[in-house]
Design a protein that fits this description.
mainly alpha; rod-shaped
Length: 188
Amino acid sequence: MLKMMKESYIPDFEGWNKETMERKTAAWKRVFDAKWESFLKERNEREERARKELSIPFKQRMRMRQQTTEEEKKKDREFAEQDDAYMLEARKEWDKKRNLSNILGSMGGRNSRIRSFLKDGGGGLLRILLDNYPGKATEVFKYLKLAGYEEGEMMELVDREEGKTEETEFLYQSSLGRKFLKEKKQKK
């Protein structure tokens, strides 16, 4: 279980999150934006015509409206339907982005909890191994490796969680422990 958690942890989650959001939304945006721009242009033209119509005196405007043909009325109905369709499509696009954002937000929380769990020693795994395999460094390292710890991380975990005590002395005397102590001395 610890190995699965380590494998699912994303160290640079913020960068990964941003890249994923941009990549997913870019595909949706390209298709939608082309349609949306032409629709907005047509909508603005219609609004401009309506404003010009309002500047005409009322009686003249009424005569003009009476003269509108059935074809113009049909175009207006089609545009209204198209307007509704585009608004629905815009809503769907917004919903996709919101859902993706929610998923990535949940993943961020999960990633944060995994980081805390791993930082806090993986739920006491080392303590369990020390209790069950006292004096058996190969067994302890075997299970730490199965838990997903790399060779360099194992002794760091031991040093961070338990330190050099009577109970962990056998780990420091192993080849991995000696190598760790040598590297620790060189860093100082």
